[in-house]
Amino acid sequence: MNEAYFIALLCGALFGGQPETVHEFTYPGGAASIRTDCENGNRVIEFGLDKRSSLDSLQQAMFAAEITGKEPVVVLIDTDGTMGRFEWRIARAANVAGVPIRIIPAELTDNLGAGG
C-alpha cells in the first residue's frame, strides 16, 4: 500500500477533509501551485509513510499552511511497528516547529478498505 491509498482512506474518515486540493501561489520568479494531501476547514494535513521519502512532510505541511492560512498537521503511517529513524527525525522536527504530528499504525486500516 502506498501513501495515496492512506490519503484516500483516511483524509475524510479521520479529518473530514478533501484530498488533493490545489493552491496557486506566486514567488519572485513567477507562479506555481501545490497540492495538499488532505485539507479541511481548519487544517492542511501532509501524509507520509515511515520512509526516507517522508522527510519533506514537515516542510510541505508548513508551506501549505502558509499558503492557506490553516494549521499544519503531519500524519505518518507506521508500516513496520517500530519508531524508526525517519519517524524519529520527523517527529522531533515537528515538535520543535510546534506542528502536531500523528503516527498511525498501518494495520488500523486493514478493515477500512473497499468492502471492509
Shape: globular
**What share of residues is helical?**
25-40%
CATH architecture identity: 3-Layer(aba) Sandwich
CATH fold label: Rossmann fold
> What percentage of amino acids are in beta strands?
25-35%
- Helix and strand composition category: alpha/beta
Terminal Cα span:
15 Å
- The main sheet orders its strands as 1-2-3-4-5
Mind describing the biggest β-sheet? 5 strands, mixed
Return residue spans where pLDDT drops below 50 for at least 5 consecutive residues.
none
What number of domains? 1
Number of helices: 3
- Oligomeric state: single chain
The average pLDDT value, as a whole number, equals 93
Radius of gyration: 14 Å
CATH class designation: Alpha Beta
Entry keywords:
5-stranded mixed β-sheet; 3 helices; Rossmann fold; globular; alpha/beta; 116 residues; 34% strand
